[in-house]
Write a structure and sequence with these properties.
The complex is a heterodimer of chains A (224) and B (185). Chain A is α+β, with helices and mostly antiparallel strands. Chain A folds into three domains: 3-55, no CATH class; 64-115, no CATH class; 117-223. Helices cover 36% and strands 23% of the residues of chain A. In chain A, the strands form two sheets. In chain A, strands 6-3-2-1-9 form a five-stranded antiparallel β-sheet, with no helix packed on it. Chain A has a four-stranded antiparallel β-sheet with strand order 5-4-7-8, with no helix packed on it. Chain B is mainly alpha-helical and 185 residues long. Chain B has two domains: 1-99, Rna Polymerase Sigma Factor, Chain: A; 101-185, Winged helix-like DNA-binding domain superfamily/Winged helix DNA-binding domain (Arc Repressor Mutant, subunit A), CATH 1.10.10. Chain B has helices at residues 6-15, 19-41, 44-61, 72-99, 104-109, 120-123, 125-133, 136-148, 152-159, 163-184. In chain B, helix 3 (44-61) packs across helix 4 (72-99). Chain B starts with 5 loop residues before the first helix and ends with a helix. Classes of the chains: A alpha+beta (224), B mainly alpha (185). The interface between A and B is large, with 42 and 60 residues.
Chain lengths: 224, 185
């Protein structure tokens, strides 16, 4: 590789990291990257240089909701009494272990039955990656978390349905697709939302959606 | 001095799904990354949202971290910065559609300038010195790209300079930074 190529490679890596390499050039660079360790090296060198700007920012304490959200998304099966409102992060660990002990010793006195009845489901994509988590709290609200922002076709949304054995699916609501979370009320008439299957469909937003015949994705509830 | 960065050990343990290590990593690094995100997006709620998203990725990709990826904190910063820029670009596409292109230049101008938001001097004197070597406008172009995620076109519009000039500024400034930071070692 001659000097011109070396310099060009370094320049492309620099602008790639800075973000000014755009459009087809950026896509082409990204396609080359996996197969070219030398380019990868140039990129990591530039990340090391430029991200010194990041580390030089004044720190700020993040709001405690961030940690609570992380726990909910990453460790949804962790034992927790006040699951819905979460625990304050700094006391979380200690409380969880104390509660686990109390729960083991005297469940009847500590947990009202409906609050212990938390169901959880993970909706996975074609590559088995988790796209959404759905949690049903004892108070009947559904919390849906979109784990990664998704590239959606224009005018299409993803919808969550509850499918029980005999009945047509019941719509639970539109799913977030921008990496955010949303709380959905359980529709009137659904008496046991934690039973049956969850279906996801992709369809255009419309005032009245027809129940689907088959889902794009489906999953079952797991009891916690 | 040659000892391994304790954050690298925490990341290695996260790759093995060690939840305690993840909690420690979060406690130690989230204020830095949150501070950085606040500077990137200037919105507490959005910064908190991106911090959460960033740590989800850090947990999922901890196994990809290698010592040659630079310091763990640099690697983590890179993850949250890409999220912030992606989100900003998506948001600004919407904003552009609503407001029209004429208002676009104003988007880059509101709020304090990137230089004002830099507190580099206290934290990384070498980096501050190297930034000082650059002329004011080229430096601003680089910082707009880094902190605001602006493209060459958007920088040209924001600084009211020809596109070719901005491209040359960015290219030369990056190379000057490289040389300067290389000499600092």
């Amino acid at each position: 590789m001659n000097y011109y190529h070396l310099a060009m490679r370094d320049r492309l890596a620099a602008e790639y990291v800075l973000g000014t390499l755009q459009g087809p050039a950026r896509r082409r660079f990204e396609r080359l990257l996996p197969a070219h360790p030398v380019l990868q090296r140039a990129v990591t060198d530039w990340e090391r240089r430029l991200n010194r700007l990041a580390v030089a920012s004044p720190p700020a304490p993040p709001p405690p909701e961030v940690w609570r959200g992380l726990e909910r998304r990453l460790f949804p099966a962790s034992p927790r009494r006040s699951w819905w409102n979460g625990l304050i992060f700094w006391r979380g660990l200690a409380l969880v272990s104390v509660l686990a002990m109390i729960v083991a010793l005297a469940p009847r006195y500590v947990l009202p039955p409906q609050e212990a009845d938390i169901s959880f489901a993970a909706i996975r994509g074609k590559q088995r990656e988790v796209l959404w988590t759905v949690a049903l709290a004892g108070d009947g609200r559904l919390r849906v978390d979109n784990l990664r922002a998704m590239a959606m076709p224009p005018d299409q949304r993803c919808f969550l349905w509850l499918k029980t054995a005999s009945d047509p699916p019941v719509m639970l609501g539109a799913l977030p697709d921008d990496g955010s979370a949303r709380t959905l009320p359980v529709p009137a008439g659904v008496t046991r939302p934690g039973r049956g299957e969850l279906w996801v469909t992709m369809q255009p937003m419309a005032p009245k959606l027809q129940p689907p015949v088959e889902p794009l994705y489906q999953t079952r509830w797991q009891a916690l | 001095m040659a000892s391994r960065d304790p954050l690298a050990d925490l990341l290695a343990r996260c790759a093995l799904h060690d939840r305690r290590a993840f909690e420690t990593l979060y406690r130690q690094t989230s204020p830095i990354l949150y501070g950085f995100l606040l500077k990137l997006v200037r919105d507490r709620e959005l910064a908190a949202d991106l911090l959460q998203e960033g740590f989800v990725r850090i947990w999922q990709r901890a196994g990809d971290y290698r010592a040659q990826s630079g310091q763990p904190l640099t690697w983590m910063s890179s993850i949250v910065r890409h999220l912030a820029i992606d989100r900003r670009r998506r948001g600004e596409h919407r904003r552009r559609a609503e407001l029209g292109d004429d208002d676009w230049a104003a988007v880059a101008d509101d709020g304090p300038s990137p230089e004002d938001r830099l507190h580099v001097e206290q934290h990384d004197a070498a980096l501050a010195r190297c930034l000082d070597i650059l002329d004011a406008e080229p430096r601003r172009a680089v910082l707009l790209a880094y902190f605001e995620g602006l493209t060459h076109d958007a920088i040209a519009e924001s600084l009211n300079r020809p596109l070719g000039t901005v491209k040359a500024w960015v290219r030369r400034s990056l190379m000057r930074l490289k040389t300067c930071l290389g000499e600092e070692r």
